[in-house]
Each structure stands twice: as structure tokens, then as C-alpha cells.
């Protein structure tokens, strides 16, 4: 697979800023990545979104475009078996980076190369709020490519892992707390092996028992799959789960390395 990824990079004619370790198997190469959001406003004073739209339609004010440079020249390589924590203050580009690796955001410059299919799991991952947890398990598993037989086989395991309140598996997800919804989403996503699993804050809402189960599941995924990326404000989860940490600051990599060293430097810098 390392050869396949190198060939994929070679086809584009890219000259990566990072050097691949020949003794390890790369699964994600992020090369000089820049992500830029373009935000449009009406250019008129305050008001609701509806009044802003009316001003645009009536041409009272021309829309103004503002660029937000969320990720700035990020480069790194993730290897098979890595569990990488991504930390940083709000607005540092953590979630944007995960979305770019998942292929949901196009680079303004640079590139992302992956060996396999990345899967992004976030607390707001789309499940059908009006459907029961049970129906969402079935739809989620089928959407991930599991067969009806595989879905049926994993159903009880997912329900047990999510550890919902009695009876709630048959209730609409709109009745779930944020923690219950996050646990069910993680349980569904973890029901299959992923080439690259990207987890955005999904462990932040669970209790200690759920976090222990999640850590064990991530360890299992690391052994059986490719790599895991984890964004969480709870640094204890990062330290216990990851073998490597990337610290983002204003869209740039501030530090990349051993979890204890990076977390210690981050805590000192942020006063935590």
C-alpha cells in the first residue's frame, strides 16, 4: 500500500515537503495544505439573515467577500497504526483539517493523499433525528457498505456499546441527549474497519466508562485498520488514546510529536 500511495503522489508530479520513512507504511500524506473559506456578506448594517438577503436582491448593497485562511501550509505524514491527536484553541483549524483529509473541503493550495477511504465521524454527523436509534443503526451500517447480514450480526454489539438508557433504542433520536447521540454515532462508526477514521469531538460528551470503551475500540481499530485522527478538547483523552499529537495554532503546525511533550508545551502556552 505504501507503494500505491507513492505512485499516486508521483502521478500528480508533486514534490512533497515531507519525506516518507521507508521503514513504515504511510497512509495519509498532507503536503503544503492551505484551506481558504470565502464568506459573503450583504455589506449593509445589522439585521437578520432575511433582511440581508433582501438587501442583496434589491441591489442596495453589493455582496462583500471575505477570505478566512483556516489552514496554512500544513504538511505531515500519518503511518499505518498511528492514532494522532489534533489539538489547538478554538479557531485553530482542527475540524477544517479533518474535513480536508476526508475530502470534504478542496485545497486552495497543496494536496492530501490517502491510501484508502477516510471516514469522518463528528458529534453532528448526519443521522435521521426523526427515526429511532434502531433504524439509524441499520441505515448507518448500510451506508458504510455493510451487507444486511453483517448489519444484523453487529446490531446487538452496537446497541451494547452505545449504552443508551433502557428503551431509548426504539425512540426517535430527537429525544436523545447530546451524549446519547454521540455514543450511538461512535458505536455505529466503530462497527466496521476503516482505512482512516477521523473523529471530531465524539468522545468529549461520554462518561469515564464510555471513554474507556472508546479507547479500547480505537486501539482495536489501529491494529485492524489504518490510522485514527482524534480532535478533542479533553486532553486526557488525547494523552490516553494517541501515540502522536499535532498542535495547530492559527492554521499552522506549532508542534508535532510525542503526546506528553506536545501536551506539556500546549498547557504551558495556554495556561491550562
From TrEMBL:
A Pfam family it matches: ABC_tran
Protein name as catalogued: ABC transporter ATP-binding protein
GO cellular component terms attached to this protein's record: membrane
Transmembrane segments: none
Record's keyword annotation contains Nucleotide-binding: yes
This protein's record includes keyword Transport: yes
Keywords from the named record: ATP-binding, Nucleotide-binding, Transport
Top-rank taxon, per record: Bacteria
Taxonomic lineage of the native organism: Bacteria, Bacillati, Actinomycetota, Actinomycetes, Streptosporangiales
Single GO MF annotation: ATP binding
PANTHER family on file: TEICHOIC ACIDS EXPORT ATP-BINDING PROTEIN TAGH
Domain ABC transporter positions: 54-272
Family, similarity comment: Belongs to the ABC transporter superfamily.
Amino acid at each position: 500500500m505504501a507503494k500505491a500511495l507513492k505512485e499516486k503522489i508521483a502521478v500528480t508530479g508533486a514534490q512533497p515537503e515531507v519525506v516518507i520513512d521507508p521503514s513504515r507504511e504511510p497512509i495519509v500524506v498532507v503536503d503544503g495544505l492551505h484551506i481558504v473559506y470565502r464568506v459573503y456578506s450583504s455589506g449593509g448594517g445589522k439585521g437578520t439573515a432575511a433582511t440581508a438577503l433582501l438587501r442583496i436582491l434589491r441591489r442596495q448593497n453589493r455582496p462583500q467577500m471575505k477570505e478566512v485562511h483556516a489552514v496554512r501550509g500544513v504538511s505531515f505524514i500519518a503511518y499505518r497504526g498511528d492514532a494522532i491527536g489534533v489539538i489547538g484553541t478554538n479557531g485553530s483549524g482542527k475540524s477544517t483539517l479533518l474535513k480536508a483529509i476526508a475530502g470534504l473541503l478542496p485545497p486552495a493550495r497543496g494536496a492530501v493523499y490517502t491510501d484508502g477511504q477516510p471516514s469522518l465521524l463528528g458529534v453532528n454527523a448526519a443521522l435521521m433525528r426523526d427515526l429511532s436509534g434502531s433504524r439509524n443503526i441499520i441505515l448507518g451500517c448500510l451506508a458504510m457498505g455493510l451487507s444486511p447480514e453483517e448489519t444484523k450480526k453487529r446490531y446487538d454489539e452496537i446497541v451494547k456499546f452505545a449504552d443508551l438508557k433502557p428503551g431509548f433504542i426504539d425512540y426517535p433520536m430527537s429525544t436523545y441527549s447530546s451524549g446519547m447521540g454521540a455514543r450511538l454515532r461512535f458505536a455505529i462508526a466503530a462497527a466496521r474497519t476503516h482505512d482512516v477514521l477521523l473523529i471530531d469531538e465524539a468522545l468529549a460528551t461520554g462518561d469515564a466508562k464510555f471513554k474507556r470503551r472508546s479507547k479500547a475500540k480505537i486501539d482495536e481499530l489501529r491494529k485492524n485498520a489504518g490510522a485514527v485522527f482524534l480532535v478533542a478538547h479533553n486532553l486526557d483523552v488525547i494523552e490516553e488514546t494517541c501515540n502522536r499529537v499535532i498542535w495547530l495554532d492559527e492554521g499552522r503546525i506549532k508542534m508535532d510529536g510525542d503526546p506528553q511533550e506536545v501536551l506539556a508545551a500546549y498547557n504551558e502556552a495556554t495556561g491550562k
